[in-house]
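User: Second chain of the day. Same drill as before.
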Amino acid sequence: MISVVVRAERGVEALAATLRAIVPAVAEGLVGDAVVLDPASDDAVAAVADAVGATLVAGPDVSWRRGAQAARREWILCLGAGDVPGEGWILALDQFFAASPPDCGFGRLRRPISWFARMRGLAGAQQVRAGDLLRRDLLLRSDVPPGRPARVLAAIDRYPILR
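Assistant: Same format as last time:
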């Protein structure tokens, strides 16, 4: 089982779309809990997190690491509000866990990426980002991922209204 950590930076509708998209993974037994990161301490975000049973971490200093501290599972899937895992993502994560070597602690789902973000990545500005799948212990140590990610054969899409 994994924990899903969602950054609620794009509003309640985007957050609800992401949480709705992970429900099938909860039913399949892949997702065990969710954490919502809310940098704005928005009451509407708190209400949505409460309604779905997610842990809320609010305040201006929220980070993926703070989300990992609140998460309860060994693996963390980082998502942004409005991110919707593409078709087949549950099976792709199952295959990732089955096929990855025991020392693998970092995977990345494919996502559309801007030219600017691609250049930052080439320049060495490597940070944990939405779409990353990390072992909790690695994320608790640093917001910089450990080396090159293993490829997860799944994609992250953006909720249509936010494109």
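The CA atoms of residues 16 and 79 lie 12 Å apart.

User: Great, on to the next one.
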